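Supplementary Methods S3. Input chains for the assembly prediction are listed below.
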Amino acid sequence: MTAQPTDPAIYVDRLSRIRVAMEEQQIDTLLLSVGHDLPYLSGYPAMPLERLTMLVVPRDGDATMVIPALEAPRVTEQAGVFGLLPWGETEDPTAIVAKLSAGSKRIAVGDQMWARFLVELLPHMRGVEFTRAVDVVGPLRMAKDHAEIAALTAAGAAVDKIAGELQRGEIELIGRTEAQVSAELSRRILLEGHEKVNFAIVAAGENAASPHHHAGSRVIEPNEIVLCDFGGTMAGYCSDTTRCVFTGEVTPDVAEAYAVLHEAQRAGVTAGTVGTTCEDVDRATRKVIDDAGFGDYFIHRTGHGIGMEEHEDPYIVEGNTLPLEAGHAFSVEPGIYVPGKWGMRLEDIVVATPDGPLILNSSDRSLVSVA
Amino acid sequence: MTAQPTDPAIYVDRLSRIRVAMEEQQIDTLLLSVGHDLPYLSGYPAMPLERLTMLVVPRDGDATMVIPALEAPRVTEQAGVFGLLPWGETEDPTAIVAKLSAGSKRIAVGDQMWARFLVELLPHMRGVEFTRAVDVVGPLRMAKDHAEIAALTAAGAAVDKIAGELQRGEIELIGRTEAQVSAELSRRILLEGHEKVNFAIVAAGENAASPHHHAGSRVIEPNEIVLCDFGGTMAGYCSDTTRCVFTGEVTPDVAEAYAVLHEAQRAGVTAGTVGTTCEDVDRATRKVIDDAGFGDYFIHRTGHGIGMEEHEDPYIVEGNTLPLEAGHAFSVEPGIYVPGKWGMRLEDIVVATPDGPLILNSSDRSLVSVA
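Predicted structure tokens for the full assembly:
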């Protein structure tokens, strides 16, 4: 389902850079299972099931992919990247992983590995210090190469097309439930070439004041705001955009706030240059909203990194002093949420480049009236 | 998306039974995040994202759902079930959970919680013994009540309809790729009322010899076997069925093996009575296949439990001495896989009941020719 690079040289290179980071951080073994670090380093995404798949990467020596025997045919051993170690239905894969990691003092594990497997490993590994694999793999994954930026660009163009359809009134809103519109967005996400829908938030009127609203049975009425935040995975990389439309003539209070939001979002995008810290990008959007008196209604961070994963490093949040580097891809998505009344958010994906911020979304950023 | 019961009494009851199990197993605190134990006990499925949602259940005292502030509006506090504790964007949710669990000596964590959160909890919890929540929640989840069996039955009927379409030749096979047929099965899974596709394995000819084959660019030819194993989640409960069809007149070698497979599957279903151990159900299918000389080609366990999760306890595998109880729902899916030639599997979902095995699938179990 993903368009992972098929050239093993890419994985050999990534693994060698990972090992430098392991050396620097004194990580003896890296354990990757379900999640995105595994396909990033091996080209193979584990099945998210109860049978353990685990790539065991020692700091020195060859990596081994421990894999259920019946899934072994899904993956080809890659010289210089990993060898395959299939396990049978009555074997204990945790014991196999523990043996491969024997003697390790510090072990980094993938974020989305099932906790179950760590719980099962703990008794085999008394005294071992566990850390997050994101510390070693994250910096590499954050800095997207040209192929990755191309994949993010293509995914962004696909959702922009849907945003345009929404803004031209080609997706019926009034009289339909949020859930129906969400289902239609999901269908279009797949039709435009994504292999997977990650989310399709549709929130009308006062529901839009809940940033992660679950699209429900609420019927969309005339003369209200409809917030649509949607994205999927296309060729292994994610899209994510938010646009709001208004089912009628925009009311003055909403128009006033939206102008502030639009300016805040632009300020965040403009701040997304190489060398700027993540928290300074957050502050750039927040300052505009604060200055306009809406500060109490901007209740979340400005954005998140994006790549193989919908949300990944770098997070654009107060306290994150990481300076942006070329290739860092992230969302800029400030919002204003007035409980019981309405909410609004405007989101683009941005890549920091030596030439300044590259914006991957291009649909109309204004609050389009679809009445 | 799920049809979780809305009556809090169900959750109050389930939690009180969980606390009995916690008492028996000397578990001080239960921690549930992403996964199926959480909605089973609270009605709310956490968003599988980097912001932590965690239900903290002390053995005595009230349960607390630690939840990102911007997701708090998705869930309603339930008296007697849990209170809500929203955390803000710059707070550390791990520290909050650690504080709520302070003094615990044994903590059970949900299987699918992200390992990241356990890694972050470990330094707060020196000396704590971690166990799997499945030990306390699993036995309860295994024994399905009437509403759950009804949900599994409805989901089963939905995939049976698709199996019938496949067997009547209404899903074109010859000349299409496995991936195209997989996409069509996926569309039909959604059309029949599932909210989510869990998998749609399509494996033709020699590819069918790989039980977890990833549907790919292989074009389906005349005169070969096509294995289809598909399922989704409908109103929160899963479907799962496997049927093979033959794109031509079935060849004698395949017909002979299929007769064995069919008999083995029937033997497994018949064995699925209350009191029989899981490994004895496994042995029942295996004996038929062994006796016919195909033993080396049956390379996986006989089945898995099914419910809110596609694969859950009880696993029908050698070594599992758990006796089936009324309400246990599981797959019976033996297979015969001859590398390089062909593979076949036949799968139904079965519920153990006081009146004997209740089979939730009813599509034709023979190897239908679709030429």
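Chain B has nine helices and 18 strands. The two ends of chain B are 39 Å apart (CA to CA).
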